[in-house]
């Protein structure tokens, strides 16, 4: 395709999420009456494995499981195990908000998960609550990250979306918290997602400012 080799495949296994982050899935748009996909309309595990196997024939070697929140998908470790059984797939990663990671990390590791990325925007409880739409518990996310490390997952990353005037004043605290832990912290630019998140350039923090 355009002369580029396909190596990576991203699979969304769940459109629902247990957070309502204003920059991603704001409550006013994704409220209690929002019509998410019925279970029967989601790809089942057999279909996902078949598509991944076909993609592997085109050169795909790495798979990333995402959502919504993928850990809301029942029996996700079973899917990881089936994907790991595809001979040419060498890396399976997961992106999660981390709330359910503490419960599932050991099973996911045993099934063959290679690494995990946790979305966490602040260690300040009030800012965390603001940026998750008042959903989830910060302590559970941090316990999930520790559980992933205890389970033996080799590479753990934390992604923090940076918004000026919202969480930019808490970033140094996050770096200090994870310093020396082996967890890689990455700052993500606040992006427009189709006019749903009231995006404003004034809230974007350029990388040069973060470096300074």
Written description of the protein model:
This protein has a 6-stranded parallel beta sheet with strand order 1-2-3-4-5-6, with helices on one face. The chain is α/β, with parallel strands linked by helices and about 210 residues long. The protein is globular and about 45 Å long. It has 7 helices and 6 strands. The mean pLDDT is about 90. The protein starts with 7 loop residues before the first strand and ends with a helix.
Layout of SSEs?
Elements: E1 8-12, H1 45-57, E2 62-66, H2 76-84, E3 91-96, H3 101-111, E4 115-119, H4 125-131, H5 138-151, E5 155-162, H6 171-178, E6 184-189, H7 207-211
Parallel strand pairs: 1-2, 2-3, 3-4, 4-5, 5-6
In short:
It contains 7 helices and 6 strands, in the order βαβαβαβααβαβα.
Give short descriptive properties of this protein.
alpha/beta, six-stranded parallel sheet
Distance between the termini: 39 Å
Mean pLDDT: 92
Give the tally of β-strands. 6
Shape: globular
What is the CA-based Rg, rounded? 18 Å
Q: If helices are DSSP runs of H or I spanning 4 or more residues, what is the number of helices?
A: 7
Assembly level: single chain
Read across the widest sheet, the strand sequence of neighbours is: 1-2-3-4-5-6
Major sheet description: 6 strands, parallel
Name the beta content range: 15-25%
Residue runs with pLDDT of under 50 for 5 or more positions? none
Structural class computed from helices and strand pairing? alpha/beta
Instruction: Give me the strand/helix succession.
Output: EHEHEHEHHEHEH
Helix content: 25-40%
């Amino acid at each position: 395709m355009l002369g580029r080799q396909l190596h990576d495949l991203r699979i969304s296994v769940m459109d629902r999420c247990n957070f309502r982050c204003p920059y991603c899935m704001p409550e006013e748009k994704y409220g209690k009456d929002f019509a998410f996909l019925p279970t029967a309309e989601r790809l089942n595990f057999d279909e996902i494995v078949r598509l991944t196997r076909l993609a592997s024939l085109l050169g795909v070697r790495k798979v990333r499981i995402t959502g919504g929140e993928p850990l809301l998908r029942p029996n996700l470790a079973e899917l990881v195990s089936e994907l790991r059984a595809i001979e040419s797939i060498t890396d399976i990663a997961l992106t999660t908000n981390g709330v359910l990671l503490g419960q599932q990390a050991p099973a996911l590791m045993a099934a063959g998960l290679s690494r995990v990325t946790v979305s966490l925007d602040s260690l300040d409880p009030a800012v965390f609550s603001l940026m998750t739409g008042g959903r989830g518990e910060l302590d559970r996310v941090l316990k999930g990250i520790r559980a992933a490390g205890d389970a033996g997952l080799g590479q753990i990353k934390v992604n923090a979306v940076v918004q000026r005037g919202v969480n930019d004043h808490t970033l140094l605290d996050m770096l200090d918290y994870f310093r020396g832990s082996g967890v890689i912290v990455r700052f993500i630019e606040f992006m427009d997602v189709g006019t749903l998140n009231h995006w404003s350039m004034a809230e974007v923090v350029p990388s040069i400012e973060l470096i300074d």
